[in-house]
Amino acid sequence: MAGQQSMYQFLFEGPQIPIVSYRFASSISLVLKAEGIPCLLWGDLAMRAMGFHSIAQNLDLILEDEHLTRAAALFRNYEYAHEFPYFLRCASATATTPESGRPEPTHRFHVYSHPEITMMPSQAPQEPGAQGPSAVHGEIPHIDICLYSKRWYFPGNPPIPTGIPRPTNLSYMLSNDGRLPLTGYQHGQPNFGRFPQDISPVIMAKPARYIETLLVLRINFGTWSQQTRWWRLTLARMTTTGFGNGPDDDPQPVMFGPLYDPECFREEFQRWWNLMRARDIEAVLAEEENMGVLLRSPGTPVGGPWVPL
């Protein structure tokens, strides 16, 4: 491997498995921005930027629906693989099934090479005559870029900004905003909290808007759908992180920071959020029942791309 450029600038080993780096997210965001396509950081990497621990194996981006096809064509021009070209296994795609409850992207690209890096193939042995590692032995390490529909997965929110959102913007912020948690490093790479100043920031939703949207999605995807379970678990993670089980545990979780004040939430969500912060679960459930009629509006997508409507 001597002389090859390390893959760890964009994809690096965490405690157990590779984690997508902030530098890769920034790089891809700039590619889209150069083509006039605004994007919103979403999913596990956005959660890490907000201060919630998660394993970010994909780069999840939300795009306006009218930009999805153009963005897909752009990535095809970069020769990112839209289908499996010769490695037959993708752990990320395998995990994204209707049964798993994970949201299904409109487009998924398997990035195993990048202009600025060399993705090193796995050391798994190859079958005679095979073009790459066999499905039995493993896969080429790669990053998945997953593009999601804003209409489905960030409904009811303003258009994604084409420029830099002002600090007073009620819905969007930059990933290097000083109100986000301090940057955390692992193996010399920033991978937690706000983006450092030497990495071009990406646009992300403010935490309050993110939480509101999770609640809307949970209610609108139907009581028994698998995705309802997924949104419920994600919402629980964002509203319980930092709570301990004993009297000596830290009583100030992430949800009590300045970006989580009730005034940051839209009026129809403020009572629910106050009850959530008070940990009055019975009252929270009752309030959610009352809010269900309001949030299940005809203009809100119900079901999702692969959940029957």
Automatic annotation (TrEMBL):
Top-level taxonomic group: Eukaryota
Protein name: Uncharacterized protein
Upper classification of the organism: Eukaryota, Fungi, Dikarya, Ascomycota, Pezizomycotina
Organism for this UniProt entry: Aspergillus awamori
